[in-house]
Specification:
This protein is α+β, with helices and mostly antiparallel strands. It contains twelve helices and 24 strands. Strands 6, 10, 11, 12, 13, 14, 15, 16 and 19 form a nine-stranded mixed β-sheet that branches. It has a six-stranded mixed β-sheet with strand order 3-21-20-22-23-24, with helices on both faces. The protein is elongated and about 80 Å long. Bound molecules: adenosine-5'-triphosphate and magnesium ion (MG) (3 copies). One magnesium ion (MG) binds near residues 248, 296 and 299.
Length: about 450
């Protein structure tokens, strides 16, 4: 068809003006040369990050900057660039699935949070310098929400006719949070502005609230299992959020700022913050504890009536009397999970992703312009169309590295850096009959030669 012919023009280098995304009926070919990606491929070119020298503090931060996933905006704040946004949207989709599977309903609360809410719980003072405060033109005080217990409890309290029959409510959002961290560092792992999934639950009794607590913890377990991240659930301190029971989900990795102890002989595990003195033996079975560094990727709190009593978040109980809601709150660091996954999965030279989060699943590398294999360029275009038409989940997931002025080797090096789960090359064997494509399965390290049919079957 005409469109295909135009595409082969593009692959062989003579691109008609304004024809970067080659129109092909329903779809378009996504081409790498059009990606907006301020890259800093050399370490010494990485711009100043957190406002100090020697700022490249961990692998995920370095890789994400080098390939153009993020770009520094101000200390602790980053622009998220197209690849990172795609990965984050995928992560949010998986989080939505897990939260909605247990009855979560998504809301979205303002970031601008009035001071009176925080004064009601005394956290306007307690939060100290971490709270980013501001005034509007009338002198009214606000903060930029670091978390939303006050806002959600006031919202639920405004509903005066709630009945026990409607509970539990599991309300959650995925929004930006603001914290004036004393030392923002490690890129997205500790920002001043970051994305959090925060869920707040409202139950009619402490027993029901405990059940909800377990349900959410199990959903977190399922989320991390799906992402292939070996997180450990540990007892945790309640900090300024408060409540009576709390757990963190820690991803074991050396760059983590937390330390947690696990007992290999029983199920005890705890953030070392919770042990009052440095303990080498398990408080439960007295066996020796092992200590590990971790990144706190999630945190759950059983709050009881700490917030519902302040804002009067009530419901009518089974006896027809008003009763305070039993609450829980549950955070996940969305941008932190993204960076933490990259931190644990990537090699020193290349990003590796949980399969569910890879920004693009497949990268196709056609031959170099003017090379012996150049005739196979059109085959690559056809393969692109075959994949995107026949494999529904891969629509919008296939990228064509159309920088045909570069050698296959150079582009393969880049593809390795970006960590596409599948990289498909049209090299010498693409001229055989039938054509064979070289397929790199980045997550397993396998390289196989497959016909078009073989590629389709694999994908
Ligand atoms: P940390 O101990 O690392 O400072 P926190 O205990 O203060 O985290 P929580 O109030 O429990 O954080 O917030 C819920 C989740 O939000 C955390 O488990 C973490 O995944 C994420 N998070 C917290 N602070 C940041 C930050 N500065 N940058 C990115 N993610 C964060
Ligand atoms: Mg903190
Ligand atoms: Mg913490
Ligand atoms: Mg925490």
């Amino acid at each position: 068809c005409g469109a295909l012919a135009a595409c082969s023009h593009q692959l062989s280098g003579s691109v008609p003006r304004g024809f970067h995304h080659c129109a092909l009926g329903r779809g378009k070919r996504l081409v790498l040369s059009r990606m907006f990606q301020p890259q800093n491929l050399r370490e010494d070119q990485v711009p100043s990050l957190e406002g100090r020298s020697g700022d490249l503090t961990c692998k995920s931060q370095r890789l994400m900057l080098q390939v153009g996933l993020i770009h520094p905006a101000s200390p602790g704040c980053y622009h998220l660039l197209p690849y990172a946004v795609r990965a984050m949207e995928k992560l949010v989709r998986v989080i939505d699935q897990e939260m909605q599977a247990i009855g979560g309903q998504k809301v979205n609360m303002p970031s601008l949070s009035p001071a009176e809410l925080w004064r009601a719980t005394n956290r306007w003072d307690l939060m100290g310098k971490e709270l980013l405060r501001l005034r509007d033109r009338h002198g009214k005080e606000y903060c930029l929400g670091p978390t939303h217990e006050e806002a959600i409890t006031a919202l639920v309290a405004s509903q005066k006719t709630l009945s026990y029959k409607q509970l539990p409510f599991l309300l959650y959002q995925v929004t930006r949070k603001f914290r004036d961290e004393p030392r923002p560092r490690f890129g997205l792992l500790r920002g001043r502005e970051f994305y959090m999934k925060d869920m707040y639950t409202f139950d009619s009794s402490p027993e029901a609230a405990q059940q909800t607590y377990s349900l959410v913890c199990d959903a977190y377990g399922s989320l991390f299992a799906r992402l292939g991240l070996p997180c450990v659930k540990v007892q945790a301190a309640v900090g300024s959020i408060g409540g009576t029971m709390s757990h963190e989900f820690q991803l074991p990795v050396d760059v983590g700022e937390d330390r947690f102890a696990v007992c290999p002989s029983c199920s005890f595990s705890a953030n070392v913050e919770t042990l009052d003195f440095s303990q080498t033996n398990c408080p439960s079975c007295r066996g020796p504890l092992t200590e590990t560094r971790g990144i706190e990727v999630g945190h759950t709190f059983y709050l009881g009536t700490k917030y519902s009593s302040v804002f009067n978040a009530q419901f009518t109980n089974v006896h027809g009397k008003p009763s305070l809601a039993e609450m829980g709150c549950y955070g996940l660091g969305v941008t932190r999970i993204l960076a933490a996954a990259i931190e644990v999965l990537s090699t020193e030279d290349g990003l590796r992703w949980p399969n569910l989060l890879a920004p693009y699943q497949v990268c196709l590398i056609p031959p170099k312009k003017g090379s012996k294999e150049a005739a196979a360029a059109e085959l690559m275009g056809q393969l692109y169309d075959n994949i995107t038409e026949a494999v529904l989940p891969l629509r919008g997931e296939v990228l064509l590295d159309d920088r045909t002025h570069l050698t296959i080797g150079n582009r393969l090096k880049d593809a390795n850096k970006f960590g596409y789960p599948f990289v498909i090359i049209a090299g010498k064997r693409a001229l055989e009959d039938p054509a064979h494509f070289e397929v790199w399965c980045q997550n397993t390290g396998e390289v196989v030669f497959l016909t078009k049919e073989g590629v389709m079957e694999l994908l």
